[in-house]
Amino acid sequence: SNGLRMSSGIQIKPKTAVQKNKASSPLPRSPESAIKPQSKPSDKLNPKTIDPFGVHSRPPSAFAAIYAKGGIPCRLVHGSVKHRLQWECRPETVPFDPLLVTLAEGLRETKHPYTFVSKEGFKELLLVEGATEKAIPLLPRLVPVLKATLAHSDDEVFGRGLDALVQLSAVVGPSLNDHLKHLLTNLSRRLMDKKCREKINVALQKLEQYGGKVS
User: Fold this and answer.
1) Which phi-psi region, left, alpha or beta, contains residue 183 (left: φ > 0; alpha: ψ -120 to 50)?
2) CATH number at residue 142
3) Where is the composition biased (Polar residues) (predicted)?
4) For 78, 116, 129, 166, which has the most beta carbons within 10 A of its beta carbon?
């Protein structure tokens, strides 16, 4: 228990039990430090504010971007029973090029209201007077878009593409026959699916009806 004397003459005494308890006791923390969680080194490497796979980081599709900029001259009107489209001008006055192709591209959308606007817009535009003469020159651009829609894995997207194909066939008639070979492959793949088989068979019958014996 005697103090230890060093060569410099300084006397160092061993710590008592009270002094050891004071040294080992933690320092009092402020309320902020008690509530605020301590950041981990991994937070700097993986910041939660950056999510490359998040919804907000995905760029909008071409159709959604055009729709947001007012490039689609019709809007969805919510009704008490069913929805409808409201055109900013008469559909007969709207140029088919490029609107019909743009609406066809929108058939691959999976979010509302793009799904409704593209489907109903494509249908109503083909019902205007003179639609046949306006749609036939666009077939080389419409068919690849419809082909991509029919190849989509989503059943609803495929159904919209199939309906659009039948609607187009009813308008252009035999003019679509030369392009059918590009579309039948995707239809034959879906024939294995029982959910789509009946609808595809009905569509093929209508394509034969509108295209004539050559189809």
Assistant:
1) alpha
2) 1.25.40
3) 1-10
4) 166
- Show pLDDT as tens, one digit a residue, over the chain (215 residues): 455 454 455 555 555 555 555 555 555 555 554 555 555 544 444 444 444 444 444 667 889 999 999 899 998 888 766 888 999 999 999 999 999 999 999 999 999 899 999 999 999 999 999 999 999 999 999 999 999 999 999 999 999 999 999 999 999 999 999 999 999 999 999 988 899 999 999 999 999 999 998 88
Are 91 and 135 in contact by the 8 Å Cβ rule? The answer is no
Q: Is residue 8 part of a domain?
A: no
- Helix boundaries (H) for 41-154: 41-45, 62-68, 96-105, 114-125, 131-135, 139-150
Q: Which amino acid is at 174?
A: P
79: left (phi over 0), alpha (psi -120 to 50) or beta: beta
Domain span at residue 110 reads 61-211
Q: What is the pTM of this model?
A: 0.72
The CA distance from 164 to 149, in Å, is: 10
142/90 Cα distance (integer angstroms): 23
Q: Is residue 79 part of a domain?
A: yes
Phi, psi angles (nearest 5°) of residue 11: -95, 125
